[in-house]
Amino acid sequence: MASSLRQEYFQIPVVTRAYTTACVLTTAAVHLEVVTPSQLHFNPDLIITRCQIWRLITSFLFFGSLGFSFLFNIIFLYRYCRMLEEGSFRGRTADFVFMLLFGGVVITLFGVVANVFFLGQAFIIMLVYVWSRRHPLTRIYFLGLLSFQAPFLPWLLMGFSLLLGNSIVVDLLGLKPKLPVTVCFNQSIPHNELLPSSGISVGHMYYFLEDVFPNRAGGRKLLRTPDLLHVVFDQLDNTDERRLPLEEQQDGELQQDEGPHN
């Protein structure tokens, strides 16, 4: 059984595997009190004045203490990150990493303006948005109750957030307002603050620059993957050709469209 689990784990594409594992290990470290959220959260002052550069990464890895919200976020992260990596980015690991870097930088800039602690939820919804726009005909069966086409999924998640009283401006930016330090760092975060926010604007920014603008009259490709990323990641693509995409492993849960995707 252990061998089977190990084999299944290494069947996950490398970027999705690395990011998901980092999120799980970070949450476990907080749960075991190896580190505290105050050592992980996004704080521009500490990053600049004390050179705590790790906060640029760890702020994308923590989704709150173990519970429903953490499980919800990890499932969405694993599912849509993997479907992107094995779908429209299959054989293009360097381009996928560049998309993640682009989204991370833009979300971080929004984080400075919106004054937030953790940025991971916005990052997940960015992935969901890009996937949904590249699969416009795919039908989603959400929680076994709702059936709709993929482009509505990010808006549905934003609707849940609005029903819980969050700001529509914050949701459109894909960020959450900063919680009081005493509330956030004792991990007694209110339930509504842990539901996924919608990184719609960041996802749409990438989708427009990558998929829409280059195909318009007079348009051109503005996002180009640096050669360094190709040197580092292109060799990984040759090892993933036989992996069965997650979309083909589902037992009828999703009905995939068959149109070409970028």
Automatic annotation (TrEMBL):
GO cellular component: endoplasmic reticulum membrane
TM regions (residue ranges): 53-78, 99-132, 152-173
GO biological process: ERAD pathway
UniProt keyword terms in alphabetical order: Endoplasmic reticulum, Membrane, Transmembrane, Transmembrane helix
Compartment list: Endoplasmic reticulum membrane
UniProt keyword annotation of Thylakoid present: no
Pfam families listed in its UniProt record: DER1 (PF04511)
Topological type in the membrane: Multi-pass membrane protein
SUPFAM superfamilies in the record: Rhomboid-like (SSF144091)
Main location: endoplasmic reticulum
Alphabetical list of InterPro entries matching this protein: DER1, Rhomboid-like_sf
Function according to Swiss-Prot or TrEMBL: Functional component of endoplasmic reticulum-associated degradation (ERAD) for misfolded lumenal proteins. May act by forming a channel that allows the retrotranslocation of misfolded proteins into the cytosol where they are ubiquitinated and degraded by the proteasome.
Family in the record: Belongs to the derlin family.
Name of the molecule in the record: Derlin
